[in-house]
User: What shape does this take?
Amino acid sequence: MNGLKYLAGYSEKLTGQVELLLAENRLAGFLLGKYPTTHEIRTDRALYEFTLEIKTEFLRNAQPLSRVTYDGKINVINNALGLHTFISRVQGGRLKAKNEIRIAAVFRQAPLQFLRMIVVHELAHLKEREHNKAFYRLCEYMEPAYHQLEFDARIYLTQLELAGPLYRENSEMTDEDGKSPTDPVPA
Assistant: This one.
């Protein structure tokens, strides 16, 4: 189980199933069966608009967001999928507060469901700072399949780390061998 760092804390039964899929080279096929395409939200502006739509639907009275971006350093530095930061600054005689959300850049090329799950998680921090029962209830309210998507996103990260990418940059799917249905995926 040493190669399954993203699945630490899950039961041996679940991690054993993932290890079996990896050993039989079937993990990519499993993921592609559930999530055959990626989203088209590639720019920070599109990500901001996507996040604002979810916030407007579920958290109208929450603090405003000043920035939502993809960040290529998150996974390396913080070992996280996304970050919510709250910054307070003194400007003149006033205290100015800003909420920022940063999403790991690896999710720029991922299924929409995974991106939504991470955005929902980070938005929930606007209301609940800690990862407690109220926090996860809020996540489930905004995304009913939240826990399954979190687990599947962790499986996706395991696939990326141990076997390579599933999708080409133009959203075409690839098979278990990492090849597109028509062209080989560049190494």
In short: The two ends are 26 Å apart (CA to CA). The first strand starts at residue 67 and ends at 71. Confidence is low (pLDDT under 50) at residues 171-187.
